């Protein structure tokens, strides 16, 4: 697997999201847990167990969910974050107030299963091109409210993040080109407005558009939905004209096509599939 660095944002950023998801689930109160435990508060221990093979992602987030309910809950990783797991494997051990364990169970499991599914499928894609220079990149096709975590999961699977949002970089796509009246005009307008450090990426579908993007000095050129032969020609053209320009391939990338795309010599391959097509990794919590 190519190296990637998975870094969660500080909980200052995440806590508001986690609290809102807990409130969505708990509502006006956990009727079941509060009915059973109102006279008998107690501490218990539980284990998280994998029911399918995959890559584990989201354990620090799960731990935080429980600690928001009761800061004395202890959440111990038995399987490391980002490590592979097998069915029956113990993923984590949790101890603390039983009401916190029961009220936090579903939110914590849902997030971990979702993120682990993304990390697992991402890793399958990454392994397809692990011996080639091209790197897998995610996209902005994410679940509203979960982007920051879903993109964290792709990095655990071995991919790297594309821009997090519209303010990260300029990406001039087909509709922008139409609106501006051409690639050259779009790049010229963007460059006159954006702060210095931002890069400009241009989506191209033909060799003529690639040439125009080069002429107007785009930092990154995306080859969108190009046939492999044309993609190889575009890579050769860009390398000959300006070796500093980065090349990204995108469009209809799947497990059957990703290796052939990487073999054209592109730097990055972007696809939404690891997020949009992943299945949750099945996990369960069992009281000891």
From TrEMBL:
Chain segments annotated as coiled-coil in the UniProt record: none
Database matches in CDD domains: QPRTase
EC number(s) recorded for this UniProt protein: 2.4.2.19
Limits of the Quinolinate phosphoribosyl transferase C-terminal domain: 118-286
Alphabetical UniProt keywords: Glycosyltransferase, Pyridine nucleotide biosynthesis, Transferase
Catalytic activity: nicotinate beta-D-ribonucleotide + CO2 + diphosphate = quinolinate + 5-phospho-alpha-D-ribose 1-diphosphate + 2 H(+)
Keyword Transferase listed: yes
MF terms in GO: nicotinate-nucleotide diphosphorylase (carboxylating) activity
First-tier enzyme category under EC: transferase
Top-rank lineage group of the source organism: Bacteria
Pathway participation: Cofactor biosynthesis; NAD(+) biosynthesis; nicotinate D-ribonucleotide from quinolinate: step 1/1
Ranges of residues in domain Quinolinate phosphoribosyl transferase N-terminal: 30-116
Gene3D superfamilies referenced in this protein's UniProt entry, alphabetically: Aldolase class I, Quinolinate phosphoribosyl transferase, N-terminal domain
Function: Involved in the catabolism of quinolinic acid (QA).
PANTHER family reported in the protein's UniProt record: NICOTINATE-NUCLEOTIDE PYROPHOSPHORYLASE [CARBOXYLATING]
Protein family (similarity comment): Belongs to the NadC/ModD family.
NCBIfam families (UniProt xref): nadC
Protein name as annotated: nicotinate-nucleotide diphosphorylase (carboxylating)
Organism: Dolichospermum planctonicum CS-1226
Gene from which this protein is expressed: nadC
